Amino acid sequence: VRNTQRTVELSVETIEAQLRALLALIGCAHMDVGLWLASDASVRKMNSDYRGMAKSTDILSFPFHEELRPHHDLMDFVETEDDMNLGDMVISV
Questions:
Q1: Which of 46, 75, 78, 86 sits at 20 to 30 Å (Cα–Cα) from 69?
Q2: 45: closest CA among 55, 37, 36?
Q3: pTM attached to this predicted model
């Protein structure tokens, strides 16, 4: 968890624990996911850079396994330790 926004005081440790609990709940405790809590300006720039949309958004997601669908077995996509990454999310705070 990366927190670069300064608008809301947050406990990164608590958010990390909640993220780990959520991963365990969905059967992905062994997987990794990146979470970046950023300012609206940072997310707006990323939205423009990656999606060509020069406007704010609440969340951006960058899946590691773009071809993964709900009916797929996640372990079919895991061949190396790098494959244990689900992707990254950037949330505007």
A1: 46
A2: 55
A3: 0.83
Per residue in 12-39, pLDDT (tens digit) is 999 999 999 999 998 889 889 999 999 9
CA-closest candidate to residue 4, choices 33, 35, 32, 37: 37
Structure token pair of residue 49? 């850079």
Please say whether the beta carbons of 66 and 77 come within 8 A: no
The span from the CA of 79 to the CA of 20, in Å, is: 22
Instruction: Compute how many other C-beta atoms are within 10 angstroms of the C-beta atom of residue 14.
Output: 10
Show Cβ contacts of residue 29 under 8 Å, excluding neighbours closer than 6 positions: 20, 23
pLDDT at 72: 67
H or E element, residue 69: none
